[in-house]
Amino acid sequence: MQKIKFTLIEILVVVAIIGILASLLLPALGSAREKAKLATCKSNLKQLHIAYILYGEDNDNYYPLEGWHLSWSDKLAPYDGRTVAYSDLYTNAAIKASKSSAGLYACPSDDIQRFYGTSPDALTLSYAPSYLSGGSGSNPKIYASSRGIIGDYNYGGSIGRISRSMKASEINSASSTLSTFEYMEEQRCLGRKDKSLIGTGSLNNNPGNIPHEGLIKSNFLFVDGHAESLSYFQTMQNTNGGMGSASNQIGTMWDAHK
After folding, report:
1. What are the tens digits of pLDDT across the range 158-181?
2. Does the residue 127 lie in any domain?
3. How far apart are CA 180 and CA 82, in angstroms?
4. H-helix or E-strand containing 229?
5. Is 143 a domain residue?
6. In b/e form, how buried is each residue of 217-240, taking b as 16+ CB within 10 angstroms?
7. For residue 41, which phi and psi values (nearest 5 degrees)?
8. What is the structure's pLDDT at 8?
9. 56 touches 49 (CB < 8 A)
10. What is the number of structural domains in the chain?
């Protein structure tokens, strides 16, 4: 029985066809993979919204205040599905990756290795609540650059110290007010107070620290619980049709005091 052999030309043609098909399919597969990561990220944000609600039910409807030993994410630990020992939460240090999991706080597109100091044994923190800060003492006015939902317990120093976080029920435009956004950086570790809160200036000046396509698109969580993929500039459009900025959030999606 005669054996039929492929010629070198026929083999090269088959290899070329496979290469062409691969070049057509791989971008589509890459796009599908990124869309899946975007969907998971949005799911994380929506679960974080549920944790905010559960925390609020036990705390007069307030968002968790950023504390000295307990960051906003530490305070959500009883509500976000994690099992973390209180001794690991009540510290300024990062929670160790060898002892716990980042859970919903890690965006799947955030692949930056985290370090606490020089130690890589630290968990990823991909998300940050919108920052709230203002004057103290006789001038407690909220700053134009920081009109968000969560502030720091010791803002204002030792004189006229003010603790600030928003009450969700007092936010008038829940569907158009941002509560939480994405920002990745190697020193942003889950459980660590430093860098837990990020201002919009950092977001504007470091577009490469946004997991999804930089300034083109990123996921944002709104006070009413829905999540959208938006550009940073879209979030800065204000109610009078103009544009806000990192130094002036009044009337923008970052303004929880509209």
Report:
1. 444 455 889 999 999 999 999 999
2. yes
3. 19
4. strand 227-230
5. yes
6. bbbbbbbebebbebbbeebbbbee
7. -60, -45
8. 66
9. no
10. 1
Name the token pair of 183. 């920002």
What pLDDT shows up at residue 241? 86
Mean predicted confidence (pLDDT) in 41-65:
95
Rounded to whole angstroms, the Cα distance separating 202 from 254 reads 14
Q: What is the pTM of this model?
A: 0.84
CB within 8 Å of 246: residues ≥ 6 apart = 145, 199, 200, 201, 203, 204, 205
What is the domain extent for residue 134? 33-235
Burial class, 29, CB count within 10 angstroms (exposed 0-12 / middle 13-18 / buried 19+): exposed
| Least confident among 24-33, 190-199, 226-235 | 24-33
Q: Are 92 and 68 in contact (CB under 8 A)?
A: yes
Using alpha carbons, list the distances in angstroms from residue 138 to 132, 152, 160, 176, 221: 18, 18, 8, 31, 33
Q: Is the pLDDT of residue 52 over 80?
A: yes
pLDDT at residue 124, as a whole number: 95
C-alpha span between 7 and 41 (Å, rounded)? 50
Could you tell me the CA-to-CA distances from 109 to 84, 126, 173 in Å, in that order? 24, 9, 30
Q: Output the DSSP codes for 106-161.
A: S-TT--PPP-BTTB----B--EEEPBEEE--TT--PEEEEEESSB-BTTBT-SSS-
In a domain, 137, yes or no: yes
Q: What integer best gives the mean pLDDT of the chain? A: 86
pLDDT tens-digit profile of 117-130?
999 999 999 999 99
**b/e map of 143-165 (b: 16 or more CB within 10 Å)?**
bebbbbbbbbbebbeeeeebebb
Report if residue 176 sits inside a domain. yes
pLDDT over threshold 60, residue 109:
yes
